[in-house]
Design brief:
OB fold (Dihydrolipoamide Acetyltransferase, E2P); globular; 5-stranded antiparallel sheet; 6-stranded mixed sheet; Rossmann fold; 399 residues; alpha+beta
Length: 399
């Protein structure tokens, strides 16, 4: 039984629950998800899809090619974990092994502390949303959503209740009789999401589900998926190459590179304390500047463009190569020469409009606390380096 009052806004509907289990559906003019409050007395009244996922040294090899190499991470129950990385890094292969579509060459996969490494996909009690939506064009929205539960032969008497619940959550009530060709891209995505939610599984897997949508719709769907995941308390594994999706949606980000986990951390830690040069450059727009550390041949120095400022004295001398005005800020790209070393490229993300001509000379600086140091040979983070106060990377006075 619900306690208190909860209000959930989804595309075109508002569900208002009071002290009774009944729900009223009211029209909403805005299409965005807004979860205001959710209180329940029993987890049984929510979808029974809370779980934990754990990978222990999971590998996938095709001959000498290592698609995934000893990947290990654990996902808390009810968390949204994002597998992030460039194309070919092994994130989709990892997802397929979790789903049971590919068998790992080594290692173990556990769902809810149950070893499912060799279990068939149907035995894992998971659901999956594909990049292409995978909707049946000849079936209605209702039949597409119900397809899985019918194949699994779940009790037919429960189909109508589950369909109504999912359709209300996703704002699909008025579209249940339509075919996929009659839907927009965002509506098709909601149908695919509804098919995953109605399964009431322990883990939901999503393989780049927003890549086919335009930028504005991706932003809206990010909010909707995150809000639904939090409301339903489901464990979700989400694959993407888009750092914006990872940073805005995830509780935990697993960054992969060439089949290996580069860093496993919350989004804030990934940004503030990147473990390697690769992680530092992959997160952030523009990416972190990596230059030669003045006076230290064994180190690389990193600083994010948004932490670089033009200073009156001190700092590092730079020559402007270009300036891109983006509205809220200006990205100025410069060439520098740190301590007489070969020239590096340094980007500064300056607030507002900053007019500067190509070839102009500036002095750039940043606070010592904003500097990151990495081992030159391994690329690993070095936290044992203390910036020298007189160093040009520690400007005495900003402009």
């Amino acid at each position: 039984m619900y306690q208190g009052v909860s209000s959930v806004s989804l595309p075109g509907v508002r569900i208002v629950r009071g002290a009774c289990a009944a729900a009223r559906v009211l029209p909403l003019p805005r299409p965005l998800v807004r979860i205001r409050h959710y209180v329940d007395a029993s987890a049984d009244e929510r979808f029974p899809c809370v779980s934990a996922l754990r990978l222990e040294r999971v590998s996938k090899h095709w001959g000498a090619t290592k698609a995934v190499d000893e990947a290990s991470f654990a996902t808390p129950s009810g968390a949204l974990v994002v597998l992030l990385g460039p194309s070919g890094c092994g994130k989709s292969t990892t997802l397929r092994m979790i789903a049971g579509l590919d068998a790992p060459s080594a290692g173990r996969i556990l769902i809810d502390e149950r070893d499912v490494t060799r279990a068939a996909p149907a035995e894992r009690r998971i659901s999956m949303v594909f990049q292409s939506y995978a909707l049946f064009p000849h079936l209605s929205v209702a039949d597409n959503i119900l397809f899985g539960v019918k194949v699994r032969r779940d009790p037919a008497a429960d189909h109508a209740r589950r369909l109504d619940r999912v359709a209300t959550l996703l704002g699909l009530g008025a579209l249940l009789d339509r075919k996929p060709a009659q839907l927009s891209g965002g509506q098709q995505q909601r149908v695919a999401l509804g098919r995953a939610i109605i399964a009431e599984t322990k883990v939901c897997l999503m393989d780049e589900p927003l890549s086919n949508l335009d930028a504005q719709l991706r932003q809206e769907m990010r909010r909707e998926i995150r809000a639904l995941q939090q409301q339903l308390g489901m464990t979700m594994v989400y694959v993407t190459h888009d750092q914006t999706e990872a940073m805005s949606m995830a509780d935990q980000v697993v960054l992969l590179r060439a089949g290996r986990i580069e860093q496993d951390a919350p989004p804030a830690d990934l940004y503030a304390r990147p473990a390697t040069v690769f992680a530092a450059r992959f997160i952030g727009t523009p990416p972190m500047n990596i230059v030669a550390a003045p006076g230290r041949a064994d180190l690389k120095l990193g600083v994010r463009p948004e932490h670089v400022r033009v200073v009156a004295d001190g700092g590092m001398e730079a020559v402007v190569q270009s300036a891109e005005y983006l509205g809220a800020d200006t990205v100025v790209t410069c060439s520098t020469s740190a301590g007489g070393m070969l020239a590096d490229t340094l980007a500064a993300r300056l607030p507002g409009r900053f007019d500067v001509a190509e070839g102009a000379r500036l002095r750039l600086g940043w606070a010592a606390a904003d500097a990151h140091y990495f081992d030159h040979a391994t690329g690993r983070r070095r936290d044992d380096v203390v910036p020298v106060p007189a160093s040009p990377i520690d400007p005495r006075r900003p402009a």
